[in-house]
Amino acid sequence: MKQKVFANTENVCLNQIHPNPTPQSFILIEMKKIILFIGVYLALCQVVFSSEGRQVKSINFDWKFTLTNPQGASAKAFDDTKWRALDLPHDWSIEGEFKKENPSGTSGAFLPGGIGWYRKDITLEKIDPNTIYSIRFDGVYLNSDVWINGFHLGFHPNGYLGFEYDLTPYLIEGKNTIAVKVDHSKLPSGRWYTGSGIYRNVWWETKNRTYLLEEDLFITTPQVSTEKATVHLAASILNQKKRKAKIEVQINVLDKEGQLVSSTVKKYQFQKQQEIALDFEVENPNLWSPKSPSMYTMETIITHNGKEIDCYSTTFGIRKVEWKPNEGVFLNDEPILIKGLSNHQDAGPLGVAVPEDVLYRRLKMLKDMGCNALRTAHHPFAPEFYTMCDTMGFMVMDEAFDGWWNTKAKFDYGLHFEEYWKKDLETFIKRDRNHPSVVIWSVGNEVKGYTNEQQKLLVEEAKKWDTTRPVTQGRGYKGDHIDIAGFNGHGEFKNVLEKYNEDHPQKLIIGTEITHTLQTRGVYRTKTWYRTKDNPAPWEKPEHFKKLEPKIYKIEDLSEEEVFEGISPKYQSSYDNSIVRIGVRDDWNRVEQMDFYVGNFRWTGFDYLGESFNWPARTANFGIIDLAGFPKDHYYLYQSLWSDQPMVHLLPHWSHKGKEGVKIPVVVYTNCDEAELFLNGASLGRKPMNESRQIVWQVPYQKGELKVVAYTDDKIQASKTIKTAEEAYTTTLTTDKRVLQADRKDVLHCEVSVVDQNGVFVPNASNELQFKVTGGGHLIGIENGDILDMSSSKYDLNRKAFNGKCLLIIQSNGQKGNIKIEVEGEGLKSQQLIINTIVL
Ligand code: GAL
What we know:
This protein has 840 residues and is mainly beta. It has five domains: 161 residues, Immunoglobulin-like, CATH 2.60.40.10; 140 residues, Jelly Rolls, CATH 2.60.120.260; 245 residues, TIM Barrel, CATH 3.20.20; 76 residues, Immunoglobulin-like (Sandwich); 109 residues, Immunoglobulin-like (Sandwich). The protein is built from nine helices and 49 strands. Strand 19 and strand 20 form a beta hairpin. The chain is globular and about 90 Å long. The structure holds beta-D-galactopyranose. Beta-D-galactopyranose binds next to loops.
């Protein structure tokens, strides 16, 4: 079989073969990328490029852009030479200034919208009459109109779902011009930061006029055991030629090594459309699970008179998921708890234009924490997200919508819902249903004023396209038609889940948005705080709070008097004592104790832009990882609850000048049986882990070294040491890669930490830092994680360290040679780092 991978093709699957990119292993990883590219790519990609028929090429590079609305910009002859040149994906909102008067307001992180235009020329030397040409956008926010050579191709109002246009009738040999108008002038258009522009990948596709219809292809695994699985393929082949198609179709099932495990050949003759339904047996299958995310590939090769005219590959997994009332979720006959996180799609300083390396770094952190499930709040994510979830091993609760017919933000999709929801729901489910990672659909979230009838409509429509997965709805438990009862914040009150189970014993409960807690990295308060104290939700205003108080799972104060006074009320404590209604530990105890409560999707994994409650703040600090991707202490709390790898963590930091002799609560999170704390070498006692899921010592402060050692069965399993820092002296620069590909796509992250003369991290440093990146890379984002820092994410090259840290995100600019990263800081010795680039 002939197959060709185009070197200039965007590879949506490279991350599937990313091992952990630690600096030490990175060169090896890059080499592996080269070697594995051809072999593994074919086995893992959603799309395979055939030399004869199907080709899919990235057209992300070299677009023209203007953030204006000029007359006549859709016309081919329009002069765009003065527009800005850029590569996609692109989000113009994050390039703007945070301004109180921007209409996106608290929801949209006070960033601007507007109307923007993109244009790109594509030159075709020859047009093949047997070929269909199309363009596919994975996501444009918002309200896009697309033209080719002045012909209007269509309007697409959904900012989270991709769309495709057939270009064939409009193309000419020579120069063709694509023009895209993006209208995000009416804000707020969402309750979170949405971004603006062509913020996902764009693809140029060609295929033979007789071809496999991707959206109809559906692979299911109706019978699964460790000995044998049945894999069912449902597909259709279209023929757009006048004469009858006489074809041979070969279907191969390949395992993760690319070995053939099953195959069949069929002949068909048909005029317009041919349906295919076939079963394949796979002996001793490698079953998919978060711990062992084994993928298979199904290749469909169509030949005519012995000549290959189409080849399409889809990756899939063999797994069985059962949701059993009152028992829980079973994956391949084993019980499994949903250790999940809700996330929005933005990546802090990059807005919603998120390169694959950035997405991969984020998911890898979650994987290392022991998280096994993700919820796409509150809309479809980029296609590469699901591919990474398949191969990295996450279960996905895939969410279609936030609200339905009633808008939740003034200009959101609710305005278009009536006209578009059915088609969009179909596109969404067909797009994602072959991913083994997707285990449950969600048709909405906190839908305003929904009726039982409306829920029925949505659920039935979803089931038209997939009956193999259950359907839920964030806070949709009041309706009768969802399969699994989704509970948001309301489920965090005492006895609510228990009561629901009594009344509906046949329905499992999933915490679609539980737990909500708020933390700021590096900030500590020893007295417990409820959200109502600083940024109350409307129902949590003090007078209402009195009524709610008895229903809240209280957390005891860690001290009688507050130890850390004078902290801005906008910042939240990183002990597990800043909650909305229930803390992480109490909620995870509920999951472990109640079989009908199958797990939860915490609100949220990462801090996200928007929903900041008030100016001047960019976010409300719901994440357990900050906007820069630096973990907060809660990251380790979850790791202690979710991961099997022995770990131990202690907090707070140990640099508290002026607090000598004051008792500081030292908290330890561990998944081991016991922990022992040492201050300057002296043991402060060994204590067992218990139901409170944390171990606390009250330690009179004395500068020096604090060390924790964790034991299971009396054997040391893990330890951690923190030291008191002296004055800030310089910075350390740590990158996740040692080389960067000179391909205009590759990205590295550089962590800048303020340290003292002995290299000890200074946890409260806030020195002003200046950054310079020259050579083969450019800075695409600077982020310190401070929710109150309203510096422009893209253009301010100065940034203060926030609690000792700042992150630089650097992307290849295509030039070969070194990248020089220079960091200077107020009162600090400057540092620089050289990164090499390579060309593959
Ligand atoms: C929920 C909502 C989420 C987010 C969260 C913040 O009600 O579904 O999208 O707004 O509140 O607490």
